Amino acid sequence: MATPAESLAPYEPRITAFVCNWCTYTGADLAGTSRLQMAPNVRIIRLPCTGRIDPLFILKAFERGADGVIVSGCHPADCHYTAGNYHARRRFAVFKELAEFLGIEADRLTFSWVSASEGGKWRDVVNGATERVRRLGPFTAYRELAGRAS
Amino acid sequence: MRELQELARKLLTEGTVKVVIGWEEGPHNVRPAFVTSPEAVGRLIFDHRCVHNLATYLNPRRSQVKKLGKPAVVVKGCDAKAVAGLIRETQVAREDVVLIGVRCPGVVQRPERHVDLSATTVSPRCAECDNREPHLADHLVGEAAPAPPTVAAPPERLARLASASASERWAFWQEEFARCVRCHACREVCPLCFCERCVADKTQPQWVESSPHGRGNLAWHVTRAIHQAGRCVGCGECQRACPAGIPLGLLNKKVAEIMAQRFGYRAVDDPSVPAPIGAFNLNDSQEFIL
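Predict the joint structure of the above. Result:
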């Protein structure tokens, strides 16, 4: 139940980002230390590799109230574990199309490659995802699934 | 049928196998049969009502079947693809099973006792069958059958859904998933759901909520579909086993379509073809990645 103060406040999307430790997390860190301004709507969860990100993580984020999800890791040929991102690329290609087939709007999911030196690109990914999710609004359809608040 | 029974008798008498897994006439419907003695081979039948995919009894989860000893399994073309899947992913060793391939006339949707093969009863998957004579088999029995009758009105739900809006698709699937009682029959019957411990059964942490409500149901069906990507052979057993009539075949078909378009993969009964998930290509398309 939204409090009166909340319902008056403008809608702010909540976005969960699953990022790999070696490239995107470091890139996001660089964006921070470079004092780049970006949307404050993204919460980062750091994992060893994009290959470690199970599609279930994304569903869990939606279950817990995320309006959008970002998955980001090392560029092809840059994986710290040689091939984790190649495996992830195949898996998420299938997941993304399946999610769309099930009626999850494409713009709620953002996939990107951000290297450790691409702080600026991370800012653009964050701002872009936030804008796209803001246009879609809160993911109430998913939150209403349970029939009760979690 | 005679040919199949004689072959089973020979295999059991010679001691090549300890059990022949095939189909028999049950009290109500055709059902799977486990024949362990040469005297009982007369029970074995094969016709258009033998819908069950018996490859599921080779699944390593079924330790009770393993106890019977080396099996011979009667396989249709689609079943042979499932066996190939199990061999491909090292769940079954090729030399540990004898495969009796049958030339398939197409099967009906439900194995009722008195049902003829017609345009209204034939399983929709049979119209698209590309493997009516299994290649992965030690023996091939039966006579070449005419092509199955084509379905009168081919289901175009996949195309209709593809052109629907996201909210329409969401509404469609939520209505379907809402009937799910989470019995997991789709998992139990599947020859290629072979995890020793399913992620849906894990509780610490619990990734898939176990009670039948919208959130857990969605997580389960997404998980099942994703885990079957590149495994599913389209035998349709999950949909047949589903007590709630959820169109799981439609979901599987969509995933198969993705696998074909993206990775040029289609289910075949050749174990040497690598599984598409778990493998990768440096040049895989990544148009969806920023």
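The two ends of chain B are 58 Å apart (CA to CA).
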